[in-house]
Predict the 3D structure of the following.
Amino acid sequence: MYRAVRLGVLVVGVVFLSSRVVAEVLSCGGGALEPGWSHSWGGEFDDVANGVVVDGSGNTFITGGTSSFSSSSDVLLLKYDPAGTVLFSKTWGGDQEDKGESLCLDSAGAIYVAGTTTSFGGGQEDILLLKYDSSGVIQWARTWGLTSYDGASGVVCDAQRGSIYVVGLTRSFTTIGPNPDAILLKYDTSGRLQWTRRWGTESDDEFYAAALDSSGNIYATGSTYAPDNVLTVKIDPTGNLVWSREWGGGGDDNGDRIAVDRVTGAVYVAAYSNSSGRGLDSVLLKYDSNGSFTWGRFWGQDGAEQPRGVAVDSVGNIWVSGTTSAVSSGGRTDAYLLEYTAGGDLIVSESWQAASNVGGQGASLNASSCSVHILGVGSNSSGGWYPIANGACGEPSGGGVTPSPSVGSLDCDNVTASGEETPVSGVVDVGGGASDVLLLRLVAGSTDQDGDGVPDACDSAPTDDQTWAAPYEVEHLRWRSDNVTIEWDSLAQKSGPSTSYDLMYGDLEELPFLGSGAGESCMENDLAATTVIDSSPQPLPEKGWFFLVRGQNSCGTGTYGASFSGEQRQSAACP
């Protein structure tokens, strides 16, 4: 969202807030996805996939670790084109153990890989962050750590603000004794460390994954062992803790992946729990942006289910992928895929079954091709998708508390690492000899009831040819040179030509706050055009107005953006 600010008749600025990242959303409100392609990649020994991300062009990037091309283990980076062809395969490492755990992309297409290294750094194991250009050429490498064990589990890129956030654990800096603390590091795109934050109690604490909202706030999930509970925190872009929450049911409960709906601000945590007594279940928790618990859902059978990926699509549905040991016969493991509505209803449950063990390791969504990409580990690319008919689901018996951690910043060297980058050639699809990287793609069907060129599986309004998605945030709200006309970019291409707009204005002094209608007025309601003549009254001396725009159509109403505290602005100015 963009805000225009006016003091008297003088335009003093246009302030950037946020816009929805297209490469992270998928609209699947009107129909089912269909199986696309499946590919495996590997060598003679174990090759493991840990993280996956898809860019706006449908290219897929994978990181993990490989033992097939070194005497120990190296970081692995793969890139596939939309057709499933390998564009490049690279390893990076030294003479000891190095692996990638997670990756993200910035606005220029650069790739950031976070993981761990024992080849470089100052401790027994250090946090590793690598930057590649879009062609897979290494740009720089950084390690972070001290004398003990420090490792990264997740990374997320704030493409709009040029910030990279790495989460994991540290044993080099702890609250009490040898128990690890959760760690958050902020880098810029040049590899300069901006700040560090530690979250800890007297027991074991760790962050496993992170996500961002439209205002640049960081959400991290993991575990805190006081007792064994799911840990979720919100931290603002300057490193201040906004809130922290625990959830648990008395057993072993751990947060594994996290996603944020950038339109509603809802936070979804994919966790695993054995509190049900059936074994290890997949659990999905929903919080609002203020940390209030909304609902929880479990899914599982008599075996073990562990989620490894979660993503939110553009109609607000939530996709969860992971590994289950309770679908196939013969004790094999399979990859599973679940889809929930924003209200918590389970509408899809399928598994990828093969002749040997398969593990689901992640999920990424792509809007331009309306596809979901599932990352896994298997012996080859053979297998198929099958509905799961006997999965138990319901509300988990867990409770939430607000923990009281020790939070602080850390002083540690940010070290440049000089690992060796090597192009490698793995065996594709038929199996390299041990565990291989497995990539599965599901795509939209070809049915298009309203003929608007958007497949039903990507269309939130499959019978309305003027609308296909709820409005995104309005971009580039600005003044024309006449200082009278306000204009903004159309949302027709993203949401449909029937999208209309509401324009409100308010007291500039209230701009940092959430807003409830006080000091705010509606200038235009249900406006078809993307321009309007400013009809607001002249502000008093030393006072000013701010202006906000939102879109609306038959699929829903968009957002005015967020307040300075990062919460979605609620205004009753326009009906």
Summary: The first helix runs from residue 492 to 495. The CA atoms of residues 270 and 284 lie 5 Å apart. The longest strand covers residues 33-42.
